[in-house]
Amino acid sequence: MCEICRKDPCDTRCPNYQEPKVSKYCSICGYGIHEGDEYIENMDGEYAHFECFYGLRDLLEWLGYEIKTMEDFESYYE
Question: What percentage of the chain has pLDDT greater than the value 70?
């Protein structure tokens, strides 16, 4: 227990507080991915917090999928 803030681990406002070490950073927001955070990794080796995606389209594009629009079906057989 900290002698100043009386908490374990220290409160973030305590002068004895130490930022948790991180080994992975989110490629979307730039913040570290900490213990307990949900994250995903794409094929390029990039990491991102799951909460940084605003929808399925964002997630699919980040994973490298191309979202296409179907053209006129008849024109393919002419």
Answer: 92
How far is the C-alpha of 25 from the C-alpha of 34, rounded, in Å?
9
Q: Return d(Cα 54, Cα 44) in angstroms, integer.
A: 20
31: amino acid identity, one letter: Y
Convert the pLDDT of each residue in 19-48 to its tens digit. 888 989 999 999 999 988 999 999 999 999
- DSSP 8-state assignment for residue 5: T
Beta bridge partners of 78: none
Q: Which domains does the chain have, with CATH numbers?
A: 18-69 (3.30.40)
| Count of C-beta atoms within a 10 Å radius of residue 49 | 20
Tokens of 44: 């390029």
